[in-house]
Amino acid sequence: MNSPNIVFLLLDAARADHFSCYGYHRETTPYIDTLAKDGSFYNNAYSNSIWSLPAYASLFTGKYPSSHGAVDWSKSIDPNSNILVNNINKYGYETSAVTTHLLTCGHGIADAFDQATWIKNPSRLPYPDDPVIESIERDLYSGKSLIDSIPSALKTLYKDRSFETLPNAFSYTLREVKYRTGYWEDDGASNIIEQSKHIIDEASDPFFLFANFVETHDPYRPPKKYIDKFLPESVSISEANQVAQNNMVDLSLGIDSISSREKKILIALYDSEIRYIDDKIKELSNYLKKQGKLDNTVFVVCSDHGDLFDEWGLWGHQGAIHRNLCRVPLIVSAPWEQKDEYHHPVELRQLAEYLPKIASGSQMSIPEKEGAVVEYHGWDCQISNDQWDKFDEDEKKKWGTYSSSYLTRNWQLLIDANGNKSLYSRDEKIDEINNDHTSKINKFENIILESVGNPRDNHDTYRAEANKSEKIENMSDEVKQHLKDLGYA
């Protein structure tokens, strides 16, 4: 067979146990389910970090976060270390990336592609960093109705108007009207699919196409026809929109709280986002079939990490290495016969070597491992100064600490730079340690030390490089805007 085309699709923040093919009680992924049924289904795939930048960098370089170094928003990888794309290029592939997220923010990941197309998030304002709009936003969300809040917003606009503010105010008001009336739009997925179709039409075989989707990242506002896919009938658009506004940092710190009903609404919206992207993936697959290319295309579907919904008191993807954050969906559907389900762990960083081998003509599966190693350099690495300032000094000491973990099918060891060690049987913490547990702890800790080094050394090395304010100052405007889009600023 000729070298296959490779289409690699990544859903941001999509946890494995919310895909129906992974046993979820809702039918969130009917099309992805068919890919899993007919292809290689990896039941225990793990990202090597719990948030996007270090996870992406590991995926493309094959290295652990401490090795590639892209562990906060000011960091980047050496483009030459992107062995996934560089090695695929060597086999004569045209390599393309289409993205609303991360690859265009100057982190070195996109540099290895022949072409990388940035799709603007439709909800982004024309001009970033507008203090007037920030003031207007506070007025609009002061508890007033939309109609009652407009006069105050207009007064603020008149007092502090600027060239940038007028188009921003128009765009912002239109966006808020859509939010509050249920005319929600996607975050760029439709445009990503259209651009992907264009690339498929223009590319010479074989081609490698990478596309990612941020719809499954909070805030969860699925397109209009998907809003009530899983919502209880009694939920209004106004209530759903209010729940979607919740800030995951504030929920995790206890600054805000939500009821059990609101939690159900939040999860339903998240599931609807997954369902929507499943349909977009089906649309792209059908287009490949229409163009006569599907029978020679390898489809890879995965995520960079998951989201938490109050596990360990945490929300979103931050704070700690929980299994539901680093266990991700991973499905490979290839033209050759390969129906199989793999239960032992694999790490996403293995894709950096696996996909070039597929490009070379291999029909191998991803080698299974006994366990996976995950790293996290601290909560402050992924949020802005304004968000980090919400933490008191004790919280900063607790959450600004390096940690690493080793996960097998049934066990997890979590260790940190302060010498803390916790053993879990799946999600249950083991409080009474017996000899068998001690043996596991020692074995797993040795694997962590051999793979990524000593937690205290990793913590001290990273913290010695720069303080948080210096890292923020080094961020590009695009990264700062990206943080705002994703609720990190």
TrEMBL record:
Residues modified as 3-oxoalanine (Ser) are S52
PTM section of the record: The conversion to 3-oxoalanine (also known as C-formylglycine, FGly), of a serine or cysteine residue in prokaryotes and of a cysteine residue in eukaryotes, is critical for catalytic activity.
Please name the source species: Halorubrum ezzemoulense
Q: Which Pfam families match?
A: Sulfatase (PF00884)
Q: What is this protein called?
A: Sulfatase N-terminal domain-containing protein
Occurrences of domain Sulfatase N-terminal (ranges): 4-345
Its taxonomic path starts at: Archaea, Methanobacteriati, Methanobacteriota, Stenosarchaea group, Halobacteria
